[in-house]
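Entry type: protein chain
Record version: 2
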Amino acid sequence: MKKQQIMVILLVATFALAALPLASAQSLSKPSVTIPSGWQLVDETPYPNAVSEHDSQGAGLLKYQNPVNYDGVMIYYEKAPSTTYTSSDLQYEAESIFSRDHDIAYDESGTMTVAGVQAGYAKGYDSTYDAYVLELVFIKDNYYINAYALYDANSQSENAVMSLLNSISGGGLFSGTMLFIIIGVIVVIVVIVVVVVVMKKRRKPVAAQMPPPNYIPPPPPTT
């Protein structure tokens, strides 16, 4: 293969790979959630159009509600920061967000296991609505999750809320940034194969057309 052909292939591959960071920077699929019976998804803001805590791109937002008693859960999701969170960090963030976003004070705070990972939490009681206010912060599957729940102060409502929160998981192996990377690699491979095939066809020699033989029979024997 000629040097010019190799350079063309390398340039095409370079441009395709260069487009990956731009595409992946703007993508984050929403986390998966199992909705309890009677609940529904009432609103969502795709990433990165919601307000974030740390992600410079923004965040996504999912809102779930029980339309009968109006228990509700809001899940803000964004890309997890590169820093490692300790138990104290998670608790501090939950307390800070609770104090910032709610008019009441939290009665208890600490860490708890949510969705299989450690989460910081702050919880308060709103006597006006006889309801609990719960703020959670945790890292899972490269997501930073800030979840807020408002629910009636009874075990049935609390069980439904915790069931939803414990079901939170990432969008899957082939979602978000990983999906764009995989698609990009496939595109690069396809482009290289196409370029190679086209160039091989161009340099394939055309078989020379041989003229039909001009056969002249010998003269008949003399007698």
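Comment: The first strand starts at residue 40 and ends at 50.
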